[in-house]
Design brief:
Blueprint (H helix, E strand, L loop, with lengths): L2 H46 L3 H63 L1
């Protein structure tokens, strides 16, 4: 294993760890924020608050607030995916560069052995 392979392996491991941590944190924050809101909505639906204001509150929470918070959470998850895609692109570029370097070495060896 070359030094570059070792470095890429360490970077890949660190990036995967960061991506996993981001996903776990986003999930935790989303649960921490949305669970109480959903509970409050359920209480209002259950009759703790009645009337047009209560109906409007439930409608706004279910159609605007909670979905918006969920969308924010998906941005964090998307960040983790983007980081993973970057690592995959680095791996692909490394393989392509290694292949080209190997072809170049083979070409030079052919030239030198023909002399």
């Amino acid at each position: 294993m070359s030094i570059l392979d070792s470095i890429l392996s360490v970077v890949r491991s660190v990036v995967n760890g960061i991506s996993d941590t981001i996903n776990k944190l986003v999930s935790s924050v989303m649960d921490t924020v949305t669970t109480p809101l959903k509970g409050l909505v359920n209480q209002v639906v259950g009759g703790i608050w009645k009337g047009n204001g209560a109906d409007r509150f439930v409608q706004e929470m279910n159609s605007e607030v909670i979905p918006s918070l969920t969308n924010l959470g998906s941005l964090g998850t998307d960040l983790g995916s983007t980081i993973g895609n970057a690592v995959a692109a680095i791996d692909a570029a490394d393989k392509q560069a290694s292949s080209l370097a190997s072809q170049l070495v083979d070409t030079f060896q052919g030239i030198v052995s023909g002399l």
